[in-house]
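Kindly inspect the following:
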Amino acid sequence: MDRLNAKFFNKPTYPVKIVQFGEGNFLRGFVDWMVHKSNKENHFNGSIRVIQPINSGMVDVLNEQNGLYTLISRGIQNGKLIQNKEIITSIEKGVNPYTDFDTFLKTAELPELRFVISNTTEAGIAYTSGESINDKPQQSYPGKLTSFLYKRYKHFSGDVKKGLIIIPCELIDRNGDTLKNIVYRLAQEWNMEKNFIEWLDKGCDFLNSLVDRIVTGYPGDEIESLAKELNYDDRLIDTSELFNLWVIEGDSKYAREFPLHESGCNVVWTDDMTPFRTRKVRILNGIHTMICMTAYLYGIDTVGNCLKDEYIRKFIDKGLYEEIIPAVDFDKNELISFAEDVIERFENPFIEHHLINISLNSVSKFKARVLPTVLEYVEQFNKAPEVLTCSLAALLHFYGGLKENGDLIPVKDDKDILDKFNDFWDQLRGNRVSDTEFVTIILSDKTMWGQDLSLNQHIYDSVLKYFNAIKHSGISKTIRGLF
């Protein structure tokens, strides 16, 4: 069987307009796919040079395949099962700065280069002490980027027209601002001239962005059947869901230079990404956290199976449409449309989201994703949201570490959180505290929730009610009693 490469497939040639730090599944199934679509319709007409951000990576394989790979996007759309298979042609080549530092720096001299994209994991945008402009390469992504930008500044003699637009995709809040602050800090520590800082100010823009697409990566379990179906060998096959959203906070003039939205990609340019982040966190992430421990105690293992169960589906719908959406300050029609997309994504038969995996660090997740909705719902409606407070009660039981049948629950969280819950549950099971005292102790813990939730009577009463119901009547009867 032929290998996917230049001889097998005729790849179009475009000038390099993007340098991309990261060659992993996500960027190839998201940004690189978008650029491919835009090139096909003659909207962007630019290619991507990929930089391997750490010592070990896949650029060698990428180069063996001439930057080509297959993306399979699949899922439910408007109630129909859809599968798309396409060879992506947007990557020019990959560069490993650990073995070819000169080519990495020479990339900064490309005249038509305009954008820097990255996904180096959340830990990638972090300050690392002890790095130097003389390192070949620097170990951190911000260090490499600072060196790269300085090389471009020097090569073009400080021409601000040769500045770059930096759009990180790492999943941290205000990712562009964070990256910019580290680059400026390194430039000062490395004693770079004042004119370089001015070039950064006038010629470069660091934009915050929010990305949303589930990219499931290499389909190892299906690779033999897919190879036969495609009739070629591809070591970089990538898989994703159909849904895609990229919110970029920046001047809309850049949209004309980077017109991905004109090719049908769901790219939104805005002067404030906060509402979009709130929408994603409260609905997509909020539903995950709302259901994962409740449904796990109920006896369900995956998100997809939650939607197949009559009462857990009712639990989701009630929490989503009667509690979350009414409390979120955003256009309600847009929230409903986004929520419908989320439910279709959860129904995707090609993606298995195990609830026990989603439950990792659920205390901090509940605080960030669900608690703000609970507080705003109480403020607006002067009562507690039943589903959301029931899910908090389920969290307290989940962190007890035992199912109703006595089986152990593999709870994973920070040690201090687990130690607290273990201590509280030992006291409850030893009858040293009552149910009421137990709930009071946990809800009043400011280190977990950022405030004393026991002082909010609506929340306290509702959580206590559902905690007692789960303990004495069981999770199944409690859930069914909501409807």
About this structure: The chain is about 50% helix and 15% strand. Residues 275-480 form a domain with the N-(1-d-carboxylethyl)-l-norvaline Dehydrogenase; domain 2 fold (CATH 1.10.1040.10).
